[in-house]
């Protein structure tokens, strides 16, 4: 399996698991919430936080734009709601500075080509192609032309669709995430063994983007060889928003990072050996010794 460098961190092979805290749109358009989430991710020991960037008039289908929606800011059209939760240039300047001050990388899932141009101005360490955009050939080509590392999320996709998307991207800068686009996702639909399937076919780091509740299955993905992990984070799972229920609160994020690092230490190198810590037990308990 190849290694791809994100920022100054190698991802793949025997490198530590790269842990991404997905803020997404869980900030609900509030910069102070975004800063609190960045701080929580940094305190937990995550390597990066990720946002989502859209141009609403391009990403919201025409038939959905005028649909009315109840929001914490009153009843508004779906298009107006999408504009309400988007950050602009000034907010991202503050996000960039906040992340730098906390020693954590940030990047974004770009849902359209103008959003790539917008985020490119901030010199991101990588891009993510969201599962919903895996079949958007023009977007994939635009992201490839940036020359930056690319994480391809594979939710709601067939293997044929994944293969086509991979063919449009630079494999030397590519990372692929197993994902199931159900929010929250039941364990029966996670299919973590696809991590092995992807590793067998593609010579690039393979990771996992999870939308389940709980932490056990994400830790299992690390045990199966995921080179990077992404989980949505929130200040409170009861907050308003479509992704909050499938997110991890700050206390859970701390435990998740801790458990991933413990699993990494426990995996070892696969060479059977006698450890110094076993010697006293060996002396007391071993009844027959070999010559």
Structure, explained:
- With 291 residues, the chain is α/β, with parallel strands linked by helices.
- The protein has one domain: TIM Barrel.
- It has 12 helices and 12 strands.
- The protein has helices spanning 31-44, 56-59, 62-65, 78-84, 89-101, 113-120, 137-145, 159-167, 194-201, 216-223, 250-267, 279-285; strands at residues 4-6, 9-11, 18-24, 48-53, 68-71, 74-77, 105-110, 127-129, 150-153, 174-179, 206-210, 228-232.
- Strands 3-4-7-8-9-10-11-12 form an 8-stranded parallel beta barrel, surrounded by 6 helices.
- The protein is globular.
How do the strands and helices of this protein lay out in sequence?
Blueprint: E1 4-6, E2 9-11, E3 18-24, H1 31-44, E4 48-53, H2 56-59, H3 62-65, E5 68-71, E6 74-77, H4 78-84, H5 89-101, E7 105-110, H6 113-120, E8 127-129, H7 137-145, E9 150-153, H8 159-167, E10 174-179, H9 194-201, E11 206-210, H10 216-223, E12 228-232, H11 250-267, H12 279-285
Parallel strand pairs: 3-4, 3-12, 4-7, 7-8, 8-9, 9-10, 10-11, 11-12
Antiparallel strand pairs: 1-2, 5-6
Helix pairs in contact: 1-5, 1-11, 10-11
